[in-house]
Amino acid sequence: ASKQPVSLPSEPFLVIAHRGASAYAPAHTFPSYELAIDMGAHYIELDLQRTKDGKLIVLHNDSIELNGNEMEIEEITSDTLGAFKPAEEFNQPSNQFASQRFASLRVPSLEQVLREFGDQTNYYIEIKSPERYPGIEQQLIDQLDGHHLLNREDPLPKVIIQSFSSDSLKKVHELSPSTPLIQLYSFKEKADLPTSKLKRVTRYASGIGVNSMAVTEHLVKTVHQSGLAIHPFTVNDPEHAAALISMGVDGVFTDKPDLILHLLSQEY
Ligand code: G3P
Ligand code: CA
Question: What is the ipTM of this complex?
Fold first, then answer.
């Protein structure tokens, strides 16, 4: 029988820096992660993709536009990816946080991020398109293990792994039962997650992540009664964050960790 998933601590309220402090610096880049860590976010969030030469890289989309061509990440090498400038979208004249100092940034590999930040932060890692990347679960666990980030006794787990794919999470649970996992869901309107479904999730995961507009007090209650945590995404408005906090959620994904931390320090 599979080992029971670990429970996430109920405190503190988790501030998860979505793609880093990505409101202020280009998503999934070193400045974005550095800023999030400096602000005091509990986790930096990473989305994973894999290049043709088998490197895990940190990028939201599974394709990029390069020299006018749309290219799938799984079909290009890390060398080719080296020509892509992730700041171009961020550095629009209308963006008050645009800066020339971002222009030379490149997409980091997971290895570079882990080497740079080591155990000075915690990692909330999304397996983005597991169907495109066979074996990504083992590869990720091996890489995290190589950095001694798994099976530790820290107050907050160093690593949380999230995915919309339950198949991928179940594989991770078999490979690393002590790593807390988050099952992601996205709903058009209000979330529909009956207790029977949540009960199945408790076999492999420690919590769920749901788009914030779908969250209701009833959902939070049902999720907690099932013994799971709930982390809504992506919350950048303090009033909305306050409403979610009153509903009892356990943390939020945010592009603006400073705003959420400020709110927590003021009122809660
Ligand atoms: O991982 C939670 C949330 O980030 C999922 O949406 O598209 O921002 O990765 P996305
Ligand atoms: Ca994500």
Answer: 0.97
